[in-house]
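Why does residue order matter? Because the sequence determines the fold. Keep that principle in mind as you read this record.
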Amino acid sequence: MRNKKLRIMLLCVILISVFTTGCYNPEAKQTLSAYNGLIEWGGKDGKTDYSRGVAHYNEKMYEQSIAELTKAIELEPKNIEAYHYRGRAYGALKMHEQAISNFDQAIGLNPEYAWSYNHRGNTYLTMAMYDQAFSDYSTAIELNAKLLAAYHQRKSFYQSSGMKDQFNADSNKVNELQFQLAELYCNRGNGYDLAKMYEQAIFDYSKAIELNPNDVNAYQKRGRIYYTAEFYEQAGADFSKAIELDPTFVSLYRDRGDLYERQEKYDQAIADYNRAIELDSAFSATYYKRGNLYRAKKMYNQALADYSKVIELDPTFADAYYNRGNLYAAMRRYDQAIADYNKTVSLDSSFVNAYYNRGTVYEREEMYDQAIASYSRAIDLDPSRGNAYYNRGNVYVIYKMYDHAIDDYSSALELDDSLANAYYNRGNVYDSKGMHAKAAADFGKAMEIDSRNGRSYSNRGVYDIRQRPSMTLAK
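Structure:
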């Protein structure tokens, strides 16, 4: 699929050249740098000089372009494109006679080269040689019926001459070709987007919009790239414009809703998801996203309803079960929470958070064997999950499996040595095992991390008294 889309992009490059040329090339600087490197390496032929000349032209470095194209012509005197581009460079410098001479050379080598007629016509127009310009535009159109630029110029002649029928005909052709060209730019933009060449994709989508201001797809796709690049203002403008053009385009509301969610504009996001659901009530992901926003706004009943709707539409949506399970747990509906976590891991056996959260619910429900099993599975899947070691250690303490508890607290602290409670709990276990020095050290560490932990001070004080039995307490 990827190769197919890239082939489509290359085809669009070819087809766009049939309609237009001379546009800014987003890759011009990189291309020019590549040719400079080629020459330094030792490559030298007419094609290299020509390519450098075109790259200079695209960078509006016209004098350098002329110099390189002249070298190319010296090496390849029949290089039609070299004459054509040198003519354009001369034209950009307002050296009109030299420009026409080069276009004449290109046409002499290939009398059917429509673009040289078109650009020679532009030069004649600049020189106020209107008859010659009109003739060249007409010839260009005869040779290439899709040459948009020539229609643009010729229709202006018809308009100024009061030739309404001809003007209308050329205007209609311009509109037709602009629409086709916009579609080609949009398709090439899709290819660039697929290749993660986002600057080029934005350029092409922008050209498509310029040619067809009603191109909803181009606005949406450009908006998505802006969203990915975190240019949220531009993304929002594109999504909103596309919605203005087509208020029933459901995915636009989803896209803008995602943008609002990213910006923490939850009410606007919910409004867009509401509209998306009105337009397509069977798309489960929209309910899921809206449910997440309801949960963030602590509208738990609405969130539950949305997660349940997701599950109704798609019984394999593991995240919906997981999030609903979290809500049930928060509402102390533990049996339902466990059922949802069970379903989550049956659909996705690598869902670490589901195992961990299920473990916390089992622990609350005093189902300690199941809690240990769930924490252990979470640790197997993610050995860096410090809170899973800590919680499992707490359960081992309940079972008086002190060595296991110490190991787990130690593992949690290796991963995060700022866990005051892990030091405190391990200190208690050491104390229970008669390892009072280690207990005191842990209580001291807990006090350093959390000076408000009165339990640590108390336990450390008890240890100090044990170490000084002859000490008389102050009365």
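Residues 6-11, 13-43, 464-475 have pLDDT under 50 and may be disordered.
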